[in-house]
Amino acid sequence: MATYSEITIKGLWTNNPGLVQLLGLCPLLAVSTTVINGLGLGLATMATLVASNLIVSLIRNWVRPEVRIPVFVMVIAAIVTAIELLMNAYLHQLYRVLGIFIPLIVTNCSIIGRAEAFASKNGPLPAALDGFAQGLGFALCLVVLGALREVLGHGTLLADADLLFGPLAANWEIVLIEDFRGLLLAILPPGAFLGLGLMIAGKNWFDRHQADKAKAATSLASPAAI
Amino acid sequence: MPRSSPHLPVAARVNRVMLSVCLALLPGVIASCWFFGWGVLANLALASATAVASETLMLAIRRRPIRKFLLDGSALVTGLLIGLSIPPYAPWWLVVFGASFALIFGKHLYGGLGYNPFNPAMLGFVVLLIAFPAEMSAWVNPSADLDQTRLTAYSQGRIGLEELDGLTAATPLDHVKTELSRQQTSQEAAASMASGPVAGFAWDWINLAFLAGGLWLLLRGIIRWQIPVGFLAGLGLMTLLFWLGDADRHPGLLHHWFSGATMLGAFFIATDPVSASTTPRGRLYYGLGIGVLVYIIRSFGGYPDAVAFAVLLMNICVPLIDHYTPTRTYGTGPRQP
């Protein structure tokens, strides 16, 4: 049984859905054109993950294993429908920007993956935390990739923040490079693939660097310990 | 057809191959300079310098022997091919971006020479074409006097493309496509542009020069005949098919063979030994596929030329082609288990 901090670290880093499991790549690549788009879809996915993990965990003892997948799918579909309606009502502009990708959250394989791999085997509290950590990890990927592509493609950050945060945020847009004509490639799909590839490479490089440092530290420390 | 022994002839050294390719490019380079001026040389110098610098950098980062890999000349050839495909007088950062992308992303991230599934030069070219479509389609007018001050300022990045007004012109490929979309017939389109002895002015000479260099490579045994012949045959068959169907709506064989990057592509780009098919029959299919794709993308696509996309698309198919076209060794049956 994993501890709460292990669950959190797994979702955010060591078993991150976007960078390690490579699940849910379709929305990750398609929607990450700006920070706000990425954040909007990331939050929606996170809410879905928390709710679906919680409900699947609560009903796990009453669902026969033979029919568990259809039941999980129905639970997830119901949650996504509710989130879609809520976004349509309260974040209508963002809802129109994200379009088909909100109902498509239901097909995000990391959601059914967490339901099957974690929530159906653990209690409600760890399951909800797992959904939160995995969803946050996914949302962070979306935001970082969105930021990368927005800076390279438009030279701005947090453009159209009012779509998500209301009229208060209308002037949050940060222009990093004045009169930047934009690298069209970053906005187009190849930019998403390149950006995600570089993020994964960066994570792997960082992990290996840390492992090397840890190894060096232990090999230095061990003679003294003996 | 079975082949007799020896099945493993002595392989040519990489640097000899690359040196011959550089020499064979000379006629085409001279012809391009004749029509487009010093911008071609500037592109070539900048692109090959960037390519060699990126190669050195990546070899150093990857802790590979720098001297050995740098002297094989493969980075130089990639740089030269990129320099030739980018329009002359392009802003310097465009050339640097394309050449470094080709070497870093197209070659070394896949593992360096021999491991890259895609032709690095064409990968760099396509990235430029997608990222900077306007600059990548701005070819100076070969029949007009060139305003050197403005062109210099443009290639140094001091003025934008919009200030080159009057200096650039549509290439024969662009011109014919635009006229056809304006409901002109292909004969009217050909008549309303400057022509050379074979096809559209300047480009036919450049293509003839690359053809000459390519034939020299063939004679020296540096490249095999299958890829260029397949390429030109595929393009030619598609052209004839449509041309015989409706000659008014489709330009003829010479237009397609001697415009754009056809000859450069057929003899120098598609024949890249790393990313092309490696079996004799496979090479023929690979070339045919490129030719057919070039025709389709040129005629029905939205980009100025199609060689780069066609080569990349067929690069993806190479493992499949090689799998189904193994050379039958002498004494074995027609189908290997």
TrEMBL record, chain A:
Per UniProt, the keywords (alphabetical) are: Cell inner membrane, Cell membrane, Electron transport, Membrane, Translocase, Transmembrane, Transmembrane helix, Transport
A Gene Ontology term for the protein's cellular component: plasma membrane
By its UniProt entry, which InterPro entries does this protein fall under? NqrDE/RnfAE, RnfE
Asked if ATP-binding is a keyword of the record, the answer is: no
GO process terms (BP): electron transport chain
Matching Pfam families:
Rnf-Nqr
**Record EC number:** 7.-.-.-
Membrane topology classification:
Multi-pass membrane protein
The domain of life is: Bacteria
Principal subcellular localisation of the protein: membrane
Name the residues that span the membrane.
35-59, 71-91, 97-115, 127-148, 182-201
Subcellular compartments: Cell inner membrane; Endomembrane system
Principal EC category:
translocase
Listed HAMAP family: RsxE_RnfE (MF_00478)
Quaternary structure note: The complex is composed of six subunits: RnfA, RnfB, RnfC, RnfD, RnfE and RnfG.
Question: What does this protein do, in the record's words?
Answer: Part of a membrane-bound complex that couples electron transfer with translocation of ions across the membrane.
Return the PANTHER family for the record: ELECTRON TRANSPORT COMPLEX PROTEIN RNFE, ION-TRANSLOCATING OXIDOREDUCTASE COMPLEX SUBUNIT E
Q: Which NCBIfam families match?
A: PRK12405.1 (NF009070), rnfE (TIGR01948)
Describe the family membership recorded for this protein in Swiss-Prot or TrEMBL. Answer: Belongs to the NqrDE/RnfAE family.
What protein name applies here?
Ion-translocating oxidoreductase complex subunit E
Q: What is the lineage of its organism?
A: Bacteria, Pseudomonadati, Pseudomonadota, Gammaproteobacteria, Chromatiales
Name of the gene: rnfE
